[in-house]
Structure formats: structure tokens, C-alpha cells
Amino acid sequence: GTERRVSRSFARTSPRADDADRRPPTAMGVAWSVLIAEIDASESSSVDEAECRLLFGDAFDEEMWRSAPKDDAGRVTKRTLLQHLGWPSEVFDGRSGTREEARAVNDAAETAARGTPHFYELSPDAARDARRASYVHSAFREDFEVSDAGDDASATIAFAAWRPRDRRTNPSSPEAPLVKPRALYLLFHGGGWVFGDAKGLNDERLEEMADALRVVVLVPDYRKAPERPFPAALDDCEAAAAWCETRARAYFGLDETAPLLIGGESAGGNLCAATLLRRSAKKSEASAKWAFANLVYGIYDVAGTPSVRRFGDRRLVETARDLAYFADCYCPDVDSRTSPEVSPLFADFEKQNLPPASFVVGTEDALVDDTVLMFEKWRAAGNGATLDVWPEGPHGVGHFGIHATTKLGRACRAKVLERIGAFLDAYAYRNA
Question: What is the pLDDT of residues 329-376, one digit of tens each?
Fold first, then answer.
């Protein structure tokens, strides 16, 4: 029967009992990361409707099945299923390189990490110093501080900013002429809520982003754990968002109708989602001011999604124990970790006023389930959303670390710019 055929083609993993009722429905209770891996590893090249329903369970997408291209026998290909689950077209046309190339980079990184300290074995100051030793500072960065941030205009926030420039005549000179920005992008940096800075951490990439998209990129500093645990970082990020809503357009010379974009990477993705939820809960017109969200390999359940638990001690950027250490630093009160402000995946998205969003993660990231589950909740609540899941991509793919400059990393970074650029073009067309 159908069940026997599917069980031979797709080796199923039993769901964990402690995952029940905590997160959105997944395929037969199985985490999305498991489902993606099963389909990827399957020797079957296609499925019929009954097989697909059995595979996806409650998460079966009627519209996807109706619209998916089928062969003469009414079957859908493995590639179509993987693309439905977020695999970008670049994976199939070669623009992201080969998977063998990416695996070789990952294997080398894991080998090099053996014997080096884990994050949880370093003091917070040692982790900060180690990260700062790799910083590259941009001559084009502007540093400034405001003392009128927050809804009550009383918070002090330090920012780093990059304005778009025309570099066609003198690309390396800080004197390259400025061009009028078409939007502002507020980005919350990563670092496990423990390390990372607005200045130096991502300078070159954000400089390129500002020019490529013709936007102002704005990064606030926020207080770090464990010295300043939750809600300190979130309070600072929300204060920065409130300042942008009322003052940033005038400060940077943007038109009054220029869209405000918001984003976050890793722990910054958590802070971005939590900031949007706070703004929505406080006053709906505030969150409505945010036109688009870019959420990159974020952590949305601080208690740990199934993919975090399965990742274990694998030395690919960060281990499950590293993530647990970051969680202990950020929110030492375990009972508070199911609060939507700490773990946005637990929010009731049906009651929120959220913008369209782009989600990005790699299959070899311990946080892959965080991103896919968050995407599903975002979309199920009626918000526009896109998902890009990069095969062989570890944490940080396309943004920092071992795949910052590989073919895979460059394809991922270009896709992020493509997603944001497509939104800005559509926004300009609608508001012409």
C-alpha cells in the first residue's frame, strides 16, 4: 500500500513527545529539518498525492499540490517538493556551487574546531575580545548617538550607519558622492546576546548592502548578557525602532513616504521579531510603519527547537550546548523562556500586525527548525513571507564565517539582496 511505499522511500523519525503542543503542526509531528532531510536523502524521484499527504501529514498544502507541475502519472518531483520547502533555484542551476564543495568547507571547519574552546568555556569578555580581533572597520561608516530614543524619547542609543554612495568613479574613497536613499534598514546584529557590536562586526557587508539596495543601513548597539539579561537588549532594540519610526527619515534626508525595513541576524533575528511583536502590542499603527522584515537564521525558541537538540556537539559554528549557554546568559529564568518576548515562536500571530518577511537559514544550522517554523507561523497568520533554505549551509551562511565568501555564501547573500530589492521595487511601483 501507499504507507509501505512511503516508509521505504522516506525513512521516518518518530516525533519527540515533548515537542507536542509547543509549536505549529509539522509533518506527522516530525520537525521540518527531519522532513527536508528525508526528502533530500530519498531514492524516490517523485510522489503521488496520497504519498505526499502521508509524508506531510497535517502540514499538507492543498494549494501547493493543486498548482505544482505534475508528470503524466500525476506525480510531483522531488525537486518540486524541496523547492516548496524553501530550496532556492540557485541550488539546482549551479549558482550556489556544488554540495560537495560546500561539504568540504564544512568538514574542514569542523576539523579545525577540534580542541578549540567552546563559547560556553569562554568568559563573556574573552568571547567579545576574540570576535573583535576579527573586525574590519569601514571608512564609510558613520557613528552617532541619540538621547531621544524610545516612546518617551528618553533612551540613549548608539548607532552605526552606512549611506548609499555612487562609487562608479572612485569606489574606494570616502569622498564618493552620496545618493538619495529610497529606504531605511534597521538591523539588529547577532552574537548570542553576549558579544557583537554595531561597529566593525559587519562593516564591509553592510557598506555593500547600502550601495546595492540604495538604502541607509542603521545598526544600534544594545546591552549585552549576562551582565544585562533580558529584557535589556530588547528594550534597547525597541527604543531604536521607536526612534526610527519618528525621527530617522528626517535625520537621513529620506522622503516622508520612504519605507522602513527591519531585520536581524541570529540573536538579532530574535530581537527583531520580538521588537515587532512589542510594537504591534503597544499600538498597531507603530508596527504598521515597518514595511518589511528580513529575518536571517534567527533563534525564535530559546528553550530549543528539535533541530537544536539533534545538533548535539557538532563543531560547526556553534553546538547545542553553546546555544544553551547563550540562553542561560540572556534569560536565566527558565520559566520565562516561553514568553513571546523571549521566544517569539510562542506568540499568537493571528493577533499581530506584522509586515511581509523574508526568512533565511541553512540545512546544517542548529537553528533550521526555528526559521522554518517561524516562517510557517508568519505565513499562516496571513502575512506575506518567503523562505530560503540553503543545503549544506551552516549558521552564518552568506553573512559571516566559513561561507562568507564561498559560492554558496555569495549566492545566499545575493538572494537576500534580491528579496529586499524586489520588495522595494514593488513598493515604489505601488506608491508611484
Answer: 999 999 999 999 999 999 999 888 899 999 999 999 999 999 999 999
Beta partners for residue 362, in sequence order: 390
| Residues found in the chain | 432
Separation between Cα atoms, residue 326 and residue 196, nearest integer Å: 13
Amino acid, res. 102: A
124-145 residue pLDDT tens: 999 999 999 999 999 999 999 9
Separation of alpha carbons 190 and 384, rounded Å = 24
**18: pLDDT confidence band, cut at 50, 70 and 90?**
very low
Cα first-last separation, the chain: 57
Task: List the grid coordinates of 354.
Answer: 506584522
SS3 374: helix
Please check whether residue 359 is in contact with residue 294, taking contact to mean a CB–CB distance below 8 angstroms: no
Cα–Cα distance, 342 to 320 (Å, whole number) = 18
Burial 10-49, CB ≥16 within 10 A → b, else e: bebbebeeebeeebbebbbbbbbbbbbbbbeebeeebbbb
Average pLDDT of the chain to the nearest whole number: 90
Res 287: pLDDT:
57
pTM above threshold 0.85: yes
Partnered with residue 314 across adjacent β-strands are none
Q: What percent of the chain has pLDDT over 70?
A: 90
CA-closest candidate to residue 356, choices 373, 372, 340, 379 = 379
CB 154 within 8 A of CB 246: no
Grid cell in block for residue 371? 526559521
CA 8 to chain centre: 34
